[in-house]
Specification:
This protein has 389 residues and is of the alpha/beta class. The protein contains 14 helices and 16 strands. The strands form 2 sheets. The chain has an 11-stranded mixed sheet with strand order 4-3-6-7-8-9-10-16-1-2-5. Strands 12-11-15-14-13 form a 5-stranded antiparallel sheet. Helix 3 runs parallel beside helix 4 and helix 11 runs parallel beside helix 14. It is globular. It starts with a helix and ends in a 13-residue tail after the last strand.
């Protein structure tokens, strides 16, 4: 379906609008947790009014916060620019097998000499609190990526085993110093597929070096979009599937790959990605299906053309929007996502933000396919989302 037809379809839909809100400046009242989960409260449904979201979004199940109901692995990312995620990780620590703070970058500062930048963001007290709250079951695996890499650095790293060995030793040393359980490595998107065979070799060697010290390596992998555009494909997966502990699959932000106004992550596209990489249960469970806890806002003109690049929407922004604007909410069964629609001042606005129903559909898909989950990122969601994990 092209952009114009997609927009035309949803602009014709009529749904019950939300109510207006009190003064924005009014401080939010502290809410009392619920005694039962969102499912038991009847909130996981396709036909839901915005008032129900406004009323319930901050009310999570008190007894459920310490119980993980999703059987496979769950990873949650935390970013320093969205500090709320730190609190979410503590409150719901038992829901996560892995917590991945986005703190660190790898720099090559000389021949066979590597260092981690961003260590000033490391909060040892927070790490201890998360591990204590989870009874030591939540593993801390910070995300790492390369920073300020020059061609000469890549050439050295790809052609000299001693360079890889130096990098591996640095990562092992830092994981021991800061009590990390391992790392989440993001590299394929960074290098846009350049030197993929060399990257696979590097990743495999790093995993083996970390494993010798009982440390983990989780690998971030991009989703599949077109047959001729695979930064990471099934061959790469098969080469690494025995060395890597988990694969964090980025099945979200569909727009950045398709450039089409539409859902954050069409559910058939998610399924297609999982089924493409493997049908073996042993390796399916290593894939962490990506869930977005953020949304996207598209503003279009009367012709259905985007006025600008879409704007990311966080949970707090979403609640403010539905409180202060007349918006229509529609469930699109094909994509298993809700869409907010506004048609004012000769322009249409489309907002795709996760709901309990959209997340539930994806969690059920993960159960069906035997995968885990990875969430980008914890500070962006609504508190009652965590009842589903």
């Amino acid at each position: 379906m092209n952009n114009f037809n997609f927009l035309l379809l949803f602009s014709m839909l009529f749904i019950v609008p939300s109510t207006l809100t009190p003064d924005e400046k009014k401080k939010e009242k502290k809410v009392k947790p619920a005694a039962v989960s969102v499912e038991e409260r009847g909130l996981v449904k396709n036909e839901i009014e915005l008032d129900e979201i406004i009323k319930n979004h901050a009310i999570y199940c008190d007894k459920c916060k310490n119980m993980k109901t999703f059987e496979n692995k769950v990873l949650g990312y935390v970013t320093p620019w969205n500090a709320r995620g730190y609190d979410v990780a503590k409150v719901f620590a038992n829901k996560f097998d892995f917590i991945s703070p986005v703190w660190l970058q790898i720099q090559r500062v000389g021949p066979k000499n590597y260092q981690l930048s961003g260590t000033h963001d490391i909060d040892m007290k927070w790490i201890k609190n998360v591990k204590k709250k989870s009874n030591q079951t939540s593993l801390l695996v910070p995300r790492i990526l390369f920073e300020k890499l020059k061609m000469e650095d890549l050439h050295a790293l790809f052609n000299n085993e001693e360079e890889i060995d130096s990098l591996a030793k640095m990562l092992v040393s830092k994981s021991l110093d800061f009590q990390f359980n391992g790392f989440v490595l993001e590299i394929y998107m960074q290098l846009s597929g350049y030197g993929k065979n060399n990257i696979n070799h590097l990743v495999s060697d790093l995993a083996k070096a970390l494993h010798k010290h009982n440390k983990l390596l989780i690998l971030v992998i991009p989703p599949i979009m077109k047959k001729n555009e695979k930064l990471f494909d099934k061959r790469d997966f098969d080469l690494l599937k025995d060395d890597i502990d988990c694969f964090s699959l980025m099945t979200y932000d569909y727009y950045s790959h398709s450039r089409l106004i539409g859902p954050n992550a069409p559910i058939d596209w998610i399924r297609e990605n999982i089924e493409y990489f493997t049908d073996e249960p042993l390796y399916r469970q290593k894939i962490l299906l990506g869930l977005n806890f953020y949304g996207m806002k598209f503003v279009t003109n009367s012709k259905g053309e985007s006025r600008s690049e879409p704007e990311p929407i966080l949970g707090k922004d979403y609640i403010k929007l539905i409180k202060n604007n007349k918006l229509n909410l529609k469930w699109e069964n094909k994509y298993k996502e809700h869409i907010l629609i506004s048609n004012e001042n000769n322009q249409k606005t489309f907002i795709f933000y996760p709901t309990l129903s959209s997340l539930h559909s994806r969690i059920e898909l993960a159960k069906e396919l035997g995968t885990g989950l990875s969430i980008w990122e914890l500070g962006q969601g609504l508190d009652y989302f965590y009842d589903l994990l």
